[in-house]
Design brief:
about 0% strand; about 250 residues; 12 helices
Length: about 250
Amino acid sequence: MTSAQIETTSFIGLASAFLCWEWLVPYTAVQRRSQLLLDGLGGGVSLLAVMATRAVLKRSFASWHVDSVLAVAPLAALPGIVKVPLLLFCIDFCLYWIHRLMHTNTFWRTHVLHHTPQSMHWFAGLRTSAIHSFLFTLPQVLLPFCVFSASQLQAGFAISGVIFAQIFIHSNIDVNLGPIGRWLLVTPNAHRVHHGYGTVRDRNFGSVFILWDRVFGTWHAPECVAPGFALGLGAGSAQEARRPRTLVGI
C-alpha cells in the first residue's frame, strides 16, 4: 500500500470510530445540524487543499531531487520501529511551531476559520483554510519523504498518527488519561481550552505531544478553566466562517 492509501484508510476508520464514540458517550450536547454546512464547507476545502498540496509537493520534490539534498543518512538508516515514532515526534514539533506562528497577528488570517466552530466535535476539527492546510501538510511531506527517506509504509503509519491526533483532540469526548494526559499526550479536554472564547486561546498548541507546550511555556491545564466555557469567536463566528477570504486564509 502507498502512504496515501494508508492515510485514507486510517482517516475513514478513525472518523467512523470517533463518530460512534461521540454518539454513544458524548462529552456535551452538540448542535451538529446547525454547524453542518460550515463544517462541511471548511472540511471540504481542507481535504482538497491537503490532497493538492501533497500531490504537488511530492512531484516537485521528486523533480528537484530535494531528497538527495535534505536526506539525513543516520535518520534514513534507522529501523522502522525507531524511525516511525521519531518521525511522528519531529512532525509534531514542526506543527507546534506552525500553529504558534498562525496565532501571530501576521498569520492569524490563515487560522481564524479553525476557531469559528462554536461546538467541538471531530468533524469541526477539519474546518481549516486552504493556506492553513498547506502549512500543516508541508512537514508531513518534507520530513518523511526527504529528510527521513521513509518508505511508503513508514510514512503512512507516521502520518496516520497525526491524523489520529487531529481527530482525537477535536472530539466531543471526555477522556482522562491520568499522568499520560498531563505530561505526554494532548487530550480533547486540553485542546478544548485552546478553542475557548474569552479564555486562553494562545495556549495548548500541541497536536500530539504535550511536551512542547510544557517546555516552551504555553501549557494551560484544563482543570484551571471553569467548566462550560463557550467556544469559537463569539457572536461573529458564523459570519466569519462564511467569508470566502476566510476559507482561503487571507
